Description:
Layout: H1 29-35, H2 38-45, H3 54-64, H4 76-81, H5 87-101, H6 105-139, E1 146-148, E2 151-153, E3 165-169, E4 177-180, E5 186-189, H7 191-194, E6 200-202, E7 207-208, E8 213-216, E9 218-225, H8 231-236, H9 247-277, H10 281-295, H11 300-317, E10 320-322, H12 326-332, E11 336-340, H13 341-345, E12 351-352, E13 356-357, H14 363-372, H15 381-388, E14 400-405, E15 413-419, E16 425-431, H16 433-439, H17 443-459, E17 463-471, E18 477-485, H18 492-501, E19 505-509, H19 514-524, E20 530-532, H20 539-542, H21 545-553, E21 556-558, H22 562-574, E22 579-583, H23 589-594, E23 597-600, H24 606-611, E24 614-616, H25 622-663, H26 670-683, H27 703-731, H28 736-758, H29 771-790, H30 799-827, H31 830-849, H32 867-873, H33 883-889, H34 899-902, H35 910-924, H36 933-946
Parallel strand pairs: 11-19, 11-22, 19-21, 20-21, 22-23, 23-24
Antiparallel strand pairs: 1-2, 1-3, 3-9, 4-7, 4-9, 5-6, 5-8, 10-24, 12-18, 13-18, 14-15, 15-16, 16-17, 17-18
Amino acid sequence: MKAVSPLPPPKTPDAKRQSTPDAKGKPDAADDLKTLPIAEVEKRLESSPDGLTGAEASKRLTKDGPNELPVKKTNALLKFLSYFWGPIPWMIEIAVILSGVVKHWPDFFIILVLLCSNAVVGFWEERSAGNAIATLKAKLATKTRVKRDGKWVTPPARELVPGDVIQLKQGDIVPADARLLDGDPMSVDQSALTGESLPATRKPGEAVFSGSIVRRGQSNALVYATGANTYFGKTAKLVEQAQTVSHFQKAVLRIGNYLIVLALSLVALIIGFALYRGDPILTTLEFALVLTVAAIPVAMPTVLSVTMAVGARLLAKRQAVVSRLVAIEELAGVDVLCADKTGTLTQDKLTLGDPFCVEGVTAAQVILDAALASRADNDDTIDLAVLKGVKDQETLKTYHIGHFTPFDPVHKRTEADVKDKDGKSFKVTKGAPQVILALSANAGQVKAAVQKAVDEFAARGFRSLGVARAEGDGQWQLVGVLPLFDPPRDDAKATIATAIAMGVKVKMVTGDAIAIAKETCKQLGMGADILDAGRLGDAKQMELPATAALIENADGFAEVFPENKYDIIDVLQKHGHIVGMTGDGVNDAPALKKADCGIAVSTATDAARAAAAIVLMTPGLSVIIDAVKESRKIFQRMNSYSMYRIAETLRVLLFMTLAILIFNFYPVTAVMIVIIALLNDGAILSIAYDNVNYSNKPEAWNMHLVLGISTVLGVIGTVAIFGLFYLSLKVFHLDHAHTQTMMYLKMSVAGHLTIFLTRTRGPFWSIRPARILLIAVFGTQAVATLIAVYGLFMTPLGWGYAGIVWGYALAWFFVNDRVKLLAYRIFDSPKAAAAAKAKGIAARAKAEAKPDAHATAKPDAKAAPAPEAKAEATPNTKAAPAPEAKGETKPDAKPAAAPEAKSKTPSDLTPKLVERVHALYEELGRQDVLAVQELERAQKTSKEKTVP
Length: 948
């Protein structure tokens, strides 16, 4: 595992001097193109405002490569050959060679088939999963309006080349580094590069950078750098790939180590006794190797990966795209879900309430004036809500809008010059109530009433929007205040109730005020214990016992900044919780990566999707709960297979070892072991499609339970097979060869019946098996029976003895089921479960306490941003909260408040956030951070067309 190399504080895109020397010490040409006059840039790129021809663009695409970060691609043949390399394949290959040396050709070919089949299945499943993800990503590929041959076309963004003229408008993600050509100044969100929360203003002639988001405005732009040559691409090269180990990987590693150590120990014991007795060396080694191959869980990673891949396809049908398969196992264990309010718990569609009106003004007039100060083509949620509030839409057509000033974070209002049908001119404005009050001439008369109305709206969770009007060149007069609220989703309340019933605590996370958060929680039945995240302090303060207890017990958090999310998740994880987190913004990327299961919502940005393990295609919380249910089913299947595999390995190893050591009797041949492994492991893949019931509590790998139940079943299986071994020799008086065939059939039949024991916690009949599992198990056992009856590669047993084996195996199957239930009562007792959980929490705390070499970089770690960046981001956050307010939130933590914590702003996370965002881009490649803009726009257009 590689640690992320620390980055120096990156130069911001706004810096006037940004020449970055290349490897040869020369300035980067792209930096010159960023600052040179537009005319000179067009000359160097041999382009013009009319763009390129299609032929020239194709030529440059061939020369410069696609507009995407380089992705390391593995050669398919080398990938396939890699399945023949490693400790387990080496053991099988040695067995093949030894079989050839001693000329046991049946063994040679069967073991060779086992080796190749494992490689083919593993390669095919991994390739299928990769192809499925690639297909999904191709459907989500972003497209850009480009001028080619004098016409506007929309090719994929990866086909952009230097010299192209593109069109940028509100909501677009800038696809490459470009210079603005015309139009009004644009508001551009550069947080992907700088971490600053406020958008930057870009005027014609200035540069915009790949990965930025256009917040307001529209302009054509000239592309001057693409792919790895962009500012984004060059920064990404500075960061090494970071990886984490999931709970699933740890569990498989632990199971594998347990079985491998046990297998190698017992096989070494067998070899030692064989050598002591003078058995043939080659035969003994071949048998030992084949036994090791059969005992070691060769197919376990494949079966578990197939199970998760099948689950990923099922989740895709439920509109949840899994970008990393292990996320399915993590999601099954989530017991705390930190959910965004807007768009996840609410509709993300602002709705007008009943407005406050000054004396002499009607509600309809207030709404009309606000609507005239709005524009539908801005696609602004507030503007759309206000326009929708006008009852007679035809009324708006009687007015002519002259100059329109859009909203910006500085002035915090919109303004429009209007003429009515009689030619009378007036002005209207809407915006923050305090801004409109300061603007209005009648503020003195109405201020008290307006403030009272705003407070009442806030108490009900409503946002307020002041509206004013000026006749001709007269003074502004405030006419009223509009309440706006984002109603909860229709399914949110029922979904949250379902989540609680499933043991998942949903905690609301929002940047809105506490009043709004409390009102939403009240409507959703979530509880109203909402904490002000800004008053929880920094990461060290959050770890204090009193503060951590507040975080753990809270129903939600308001006024949250991105770094607050990261720290909240960190605290919850250190207290033993498996945390899921939803997010949509670029600054959410570190928290999404930090969470055990990061979930990017349907409106998420590219960087958020890259950081998340699961990407939702539809809004709302219900799809997440559906995904939790499906992931718990998948976990049940993986757990069932793991117990089956461990139990069978123990049974084979114990039986073989004791038979050889005690009776000096090889109960089965090497070929028999290979056939059992080939038939049983091949058919067991069907467990991925089995019927299971999801648990009503979060799942977790309880290795105490898994190993305990497996060991009991393995030991009781060994007792059963020794019983038949005794009957064969002492009652039926069969010779050595026939006894071996009988043992082979018993191990094969009883082994596969074990899956019906491990797949349920109750009696084996409590959940009906899937048809495909029944067909696979009984189909392979029919083949195994025919092989034993007619003696393929072994002495024929005959139908009579085969029937006895089946009857004996089924009788013990019922006995084993009763033993399993008793074992669950012992190993799954509340006391044992509590001890296992405590051990897990302690292990996690120990891991967290280690130096953060392998963990995701914390957003506020190490290098501090430039002071001017900190001041620019949120100047009003420097003021410390009042002592009494802090005391209300967390009295115990008050003395620990450090002076530097008071000046903490969102841009404190700049260096590490940039590091993580670019690491994600390098890790996943540009293809892995493709937005769903086209899909969303198509859905939105479709919805708009259906609205009468």
